[in-house]
Amino acid sequence: MFEEKASAKVNLCLQIVGQKSNGFHLLDSIVGFTEFGDHLSFEKSEKLELTVKGAFSDQIPLDNSNLVLKAAELLRTLNNIKDGAHITLTKNLPPSAGLGGGSSDAAAAIRGLTRLWEINLPALDELMKIGSDLPVCINQKTQHMKGFGEVLRIIHTFPNLPILLVNPLKKVSTQAVFNMLENKQNPPLSNYEKLFQTKKDWINWLLLQRNDLIKPALKIEPIILEVLQLISSQNSVEQVSMSGSGATCFGVFESKYDCDAAMKKVQRERPEWWSVSTEIISI
């Protein structure tokens, strides 16, 4: 049996810098991956099967729209594989939450199945057929992502950062948020020093960046503002923003102790929301 972790994908900043004639948006984003995430296991089987368990298992489709099954079928087609696999997905991340859960699961499925079937990873253009987040999710390293999601550079000096994730358990459609984005031509990320070494250096730089999708997301799900305000009220929080198209928001801390304490306060005040204290793992 093989196992893979599908980390939450967090857009620490996300700036929309253009739109092509085909409708695809051009992004400029720093993407990090957390210690916390979904879990997948893979066993040999005569046919392709998917079992889903965990806190959000009842919200995961088991038909052809499931990205894990799409990824598995893509690998079988590309490599002319007749064997199947039994995949077990433990779903710990809320779906449609701005955390790239489906794409991270699909990327983990590709990593796990290439090991199970002893094949190579597919090419970048093949990954993009499943979704634009697949390439960035394959290696789960902190990366600077541009273009449609296919232009990637690993940031080797990015530190591990304690991060509080909070979601009001409201699903937000990525497509709907992009459709409501008024300005598609926003400034790109400001230049950052490749030799930044400390958490404070990176946090100070992140504070100057944006998520251009917050404004349209608030129009669709106003409760996101309450999430941002609650995180902002926590002691020692540094950066507060929204990940992806929402509704998950986050707070970055220098200390994991402060991050854990903030999570406990959020859970006391809003026990009906989903929250977790984890870390962006880069080193």
Report on the architecture of this protein.
Helix 1 packs parallel to helix 2. The protein folds into two domains: 2-147, Ribosomal Protein S5, domain 2, CATH 3.30.230; 158-280, GHMP kinase, C-terminal domain (Alpha-Beta Plaits, 2-Layer Sandwich), CATH 3.30.70.890. It starts with a strand and ends with a strand. The chain has 283 residues and is α+β, with helices and mostly antiparallel strands. It is globular. Helix 1 links the parallel strand 3 (48-53) and strand 4. The longest helix has 16 residues, at 101-116. 31% of the residues lie in helices and 29% in strands. Strands 1, 2, 3, 4, 5 and 6 form a six-stranded mixed sheet that branches. Strands 8-9-7-10 form a four-stranded antiparallel sheet, sandwiched between helices.
CATH topology grouping of the largest domain: Ribosomal Protein S5, domain 2
Low-confidence stretches: none
Class derived from helix and strand content: alpha+beta
CATH architecture of the largest domain: 2-Layer Sandwich
Spatial extent as radius of gyration: 18 Å
- The level-1 CATH class of the largest domain: Alpha Beta
Order of helices and strands: EEEHEHHHEEEHHHHEEHE
Distance between the termini: 27 Å
Q: Helix fraction? A: 25-40%
Oligomer: single chain
Q: So how many helices?
A: 9
Biggest sheet layout? 6 strands, mixed
Number of domains: 2
Based on DSSP secondary structure assignment, what is the total number of beta strands?
A: 10
Average pLDDT, all residues: 96
Strand content: 25-35%
Shape: globular
